[in-house]
Specification:
With 352 residues, this protein is α/β, with parallel strands linked by helices. It folds into three domains: 113 residues, NadA-like (Rossmann fold, 3-Layer(aba) Sandwich), CATH 3.40.50.10800; 121 residues, Rossmann fold (3-Layer(aba) Sandwich), CATH 3.40.50; 80 residues, NadA-like (Rossmann fold). The chain has 16 helices and 13 strands. The chain starts with a helix and ends with a helix. The structure holds 1,3-dihydroxyacetonephosphate and iron/sulfur cluster. InterPro entries: NadA (IPR003473), NadA_sf (IPR036094), Quinolinate_synth_A_type3 (IPR023515).
Length: 352
Amino acid sequence: APSDPDLVERARAAKAALGDRVFVLGHHYQRDEVIQFADVTGDSFKLAREAAARPDAEFIVFCGVHFMAESADILTTDAQRVVLPDLAAGCSMADMAVLAQVEKAWERFASLGIASEVVPVTYMNSSADIKGFVGRNDGVVCTSSNAETALRWSFEQGTKVFFLPDQHLGRNTAVLKMGFELADCVLYDPHRPGGGLTDEQLRGAKVILWKGHCSVHGRFSLDAVEDVRARVPGVNVLVHPECRHEVVTAADFVGSTEYIIRVIDEAPAGSAWAVGTELNLVRRLALAHPDKQITFLERNVCYCSTMNRIDLPHLVWALEELVAGRVPNQITVDASTAHYARVALDRMLALP
Ligand code: 13P
Ligand code: SF4
């Protein structure tokens, strides 16, 4: 639906009033009505770098989800304030790894005598607490665009990796990019005693995957891939690595949202694509490339509901509050957590 013209005008006016004092970041999964006001759009890796590269902006308005705003707070200066237009914009995957559970797993590794050889790696899609844990324990953050590099770095530091919280990104990267066997990976379930793993399984594993997943990408199915191949001759299947292993294995191209955009940009006219990622992005890609046939991989997968919490009314409210001299929905990470989370984030930003 087209945006409410009154709200569009108010957003424009508030941004103009704030000028360079505000910088608006927009993740690729945001609604059209919000993305039109982003100064920069990107995947989570690009947005983390953009946040760190704007020390002069007094306010960073983050149109994305909570863990992204936390990372922005960690990577910006103390004087800068990070605003999340709706505090309910969380991430179900990030919520699947709670610090107390992760510490319990680590204690188990320690009691087995393997903790010193395990390198913790957390996907960007995790709370600042988890990033802090990883930083304290000599690990690294990764995103979907650098997971392979981060895993290679980790296997130079130790002999095992503990990958949080997305089992799919961890498994897909280990098996499809690094040549591990599926049998080298075990799944640690925080809701089962001992993670549901025997001592032998933990000792033998190369990659210990946390049992978390994305509630959007986890829903794409192998059936959908087979179905679209049967319906659309010559179709290219392009998916995000948060999809299940069988889906990624059956796809033709796999990568982060920035990668997906680049592949579609470079695709020849007339080519056909079935894209397995969040619907706002797929819709925009289809509209921007009328000369290519772009479809959504699976009909019954929907928007990321928490990304969609950020809508134009919330953005207008946040901007107008800033104009009025108040800082709404500020996201702050406590100093000690931020320190160690920054260590893990800086390690990621320094990867080749
Ligand atoms: P990227 O932005 O790293 O592609 O991750 C996708 C995602 O699910 C963000 O929430
Ligand atoms: Fe979290 Fe998935 Fe939504 Fe990204 S798309 S914010 S990983 S639930």
